[in-house]
UniProtKB/TrEMBL annotation:
Protein name: Protein-disulfide reductase DsbD domain-containing protein
Keywords: Signal
Signal peptide region: 1-19
Limits of the Thiol:disulfide interchange protein DsbD N-terminal domain: 26-146
InterPro entries documented for this protein: DsbDN, DsbDN_sf
Length: 149
């Protein structure tokens, strides 16, 4: 009887480990002072063999990376989020369209203007999707809160 209980517990333990959520993207959020303004730097480091999609990937394709910033009367978002990295473009038969993505690392930057002489934060959410050659993970949302000193 003890052997059966032990085997059942081992099976449950192994199943639990196997069912753990994959998280192949690590995010780093920081602000760099640029004169009176700040450059918000959102860096995604992607484990191999995964890739993360561009903000501008093909229509009807995977979920593009998007950023939403919480309203803050002390700051003004200036322009669009710029992405920097080795952009790859391939036709994806699963989505029946060309897709744009980054492997390894991509840096997203957003210029923020801050009212003079104030300390505040910029916060928001990034939504992204990652795939490898065999599977895609569901879209993921990650929140961020960056101090502007």
């Amino acid at each position: 009887m003890k052997k059966i209980v032990f085997a059942a517990l081992m099976f449950v333990g192994i199943s639990t480990l196997h069912a753990q959520v994959k998280n192949p993207v690590q995010w780093q959020f920081e602000a760099k002072k640029k004169g009176a303004d700040y450059e918000i730097v959102l860096t995604a480091t992607v484990d191999k063999p995964w890739h993360i999609y561009s903000q501008n990937t093909g229509k009807n394709g995977p979920v593009p990376t998007t950023f939403s910033f919480k309203k803050n009367p002390l700051i003004t978002i200036s322009g669009k989020v710029i992405e920097t990295g080795k952009l790859e473009k391939v036709y994806d038969k699963n989505f029946s369209t060309d897709v744009l993505f980054y492997s390894n690392k991509v840096v997203f930057t957003q210029l923020v203007k801050v009212k003079a002489g104030v300390k505040t934060n910029v916060s928001g959410t990034v939504e992204y999707m990652v795939c490898d050659d065999e599977q895609c993970l569901p879209p993921t949302k990650k929140t961020f809160d960056i101090k502007l000193l």
